TrEMBL record:
MF (Gene Ontology): all-trans-nonaprenyl-diphosphate synthase (geranylgeranyl-diphosphate specific) activity; metal ion binding
Pfam families in the record: polyprenyl_synt (PF00348)
Family: Belongs to the FPP/GGPP synthase family.
Cofactor names: Mg(2+)
Any single biological process term in GO: plastoquinone biosynthetic process
Organism: Arabidopsis suecica (Swedish thale-cress)
Keywords: Chloroplast, Isoprene biosynthesis, Magnesium, Metal-binding, Plastid, Transferase, Transit peptide
Function: Involved in providing solanesyl diphosphate for plastoquinone-9 (PQ-9) formation in plastids. Catalyzes the elongation of the prenyl side chain of PQ-9 in plastids. Contributes to the biosynthesis of plastochromanol-8 (PC-8) in plastids. Does not contribute to the synthesis of tocopherol or ubiquinone. PQ-9 and PC-8 are lipophilic antioxidants that act as protectant against photooxidative stress under high light stress conditions. Prefers geranylgeranyl diphosphate to farnesyl diphosphate as substrate. No activity with geranyl diphosphate or dimethylallyl diphosphate as substrate.
Subunit structure: Homodimer. Interacts with FBN5.
EC number: 2.5.1.85
A GO cellular component annotation in the UniProt record: chloroplast
Name of this protein: all-trans-nonaprenyl-diphosphate synthase [geranylgeranyl-diphosphatespecific]
Length: 406
């Protein structure tokens, strides 16, 4: 893909960056061309302000610190719809190699496992997590002076996709879902027993490849993700139909189930680029905030999209008693909503009534604000990276997510 950039300089100044680098910062507006679309970004180019990371349990509701001075109006940054195809065009070759390797990596020990793997990998999917790994890998590699990605970068992307796929197989069993990405799920085709074993095998295979990377920091990071998956499922199962669920609880559960893997992916990529610790921590925070924003948007769409658009019944999480951000916000104003939920929708038409209350009671609007807040934080986390096509693609990933609810 051809990528070109031009700067309209408005002045320069010398600053010491939070990453320990001294550099000229250009007060510029950079216009980048990706394929057929044009994007513009304004602000301080290459600026960074690292902030000490808080523990994940207490920092989920907070920003990355008060020292940030650069702000972005995400709704005005991009004037044209963003597509994942364009976003990942920069790493299309990397993703193609990953697709070619996935089936062989799973192994050929058992024909049933191969069939299960072909079913889930063959169903396609956006490959968003490995795409993020490759984008962050390239962006941080430029910062570290690496001319190309390492074998560790590429193996990490494959491991992340295997772990994500294993979690999907298990999720479909727990949710009793018979379709995913327009195809029958593994447990629908092969039975629950085979699906559970296929997911376990994929987790184990990913762990084996992870151990062979021989990087203790990354091993600990990814191992925590697998633990977080289980913690998230337990936390969700123990709070079904609980109208006293707090926003903090929801965000922590969302971190465990979604954002933990994204955060580990982006931090792991930075670690293998061998950049400074404050940059790896900012990449972790970027992945966490992006992952949370994605989950919040998904939870909004559960109320705003049709069954055909979702590929599952609208309001399905609410029907199962899983209370998400729009519901938690709506419960603050709608006493009747609490009654309906606590009755577990025993009356005919009560689910539809509850869904309408969430839509009309301000829950959607406040959840949208929360998603944008996390997106703002994610953009700020990227300021420690040098301005490049890869950083711009990461910024557009954040905006792509918000466009889903515009």
């Amino acid at each position: 893909m051809m990528t070109s950039c031009r700067n309209l300089d408005l002045g320069t100044m010398m600053m010491a960056c939070g990453c320990g680098r001294r550099q000229f910062l250009s007060l510029a507006k950079t216009v980048c061309k990706f394929g057929s679309s044009n994007r513009s970004y304004g602000g301080l180019v290459g600026s960074c302000k690292a902030v000490p990371t808080k523990s994940k349990e207490i920092s989920l509701l907070n920003g990355i610190g008060q020292a940030q001075t650069v702000t972005f109006d995400l709704r005005q940054e991009s004037k044209q719809p963003i597509s994942l195809v364009n976003l990942f065009e920069l790493v299309a070759d990397d993703l193609q190699t990953l697709n070619d390797n996935l089936l062989s990596i799973v192994g050929a020990e058992n024909p049933v496992l191969i069939s299960a793997a072909e079913q889930i990998f063959g169903a396609g999917g956006k490959r968003m997590r490995p795409g993020l790994v490759f984008l962050v890998s390239h962006a941080t590699a430029e910062l570290a002076g690496l001319k190309e990605l390492t074998t560790e970068h590429r193996r990490l992307a494959e491991i992340i996709e295997m772990i994500h796929t294993a979690s999907l197989i298990h999720d479909d069993v727990l949710d009793e879902s018979d379709m995913r990405r327009g195809k029958e799920t593994v447990h629908e085709l092969f039975g629950t027993r085979v699906a559970v074993l296929a997911g376990d095998f994929m987790f184990a295979q990913a762990s084996w490849y992870l151990a062979n990377l021989e990087n203790l920091q990354v091993i600990k990071l990814i191992s925590q993700v697998i633990k977080d998956f289980a913690s998230g499922e337990i936390k969700q199962a123990s709070s079904l139909f609980d109208c006293d669920t707090k926003l903090d609880d929801y965000l922590l559960k969302s971190f465990y189930k979604t954002a933990s893997l994204v955060a580990a992916s982006t931090k792991g990529a930075a670690i293998f680029s061998r950049v400074e610790t404050d940059v790896t921590e900012q990449m972790y925070e970027f992945g966490k905030n992006l992952g949370l924003s994605f989950q919040i948007v998904d939870d909004i769409l559960d109320f705003t999209q049709s069954t055909e658009q979702l590929g599952k019944p609208a309001g399905s999480d609410l029907a199962k008693g899983n209370l998400t951000a729009p519901v938690i916000f709506a419960l603050e104003k709608e006493a009747r909503l609490r009654e309906i939920i606590e009755s577990e929708f025993c009356e005919a038409g009560s689910l539809e009534e509850a869904i309408e209350m969430v839509r009309e009671g301000g829950g959607i609007r406040r959840a949208q604000e929360l998603a944008r807040e996390k997106a703002d934080d994610a953009i700020k986390n990227l300021q420690c990276l040098p301005r490049s096509a890869f950083r711009s693609a990461l910024e557009e990933m954040v905006m792509y997510n918000l466009e889903r609810i515009d």
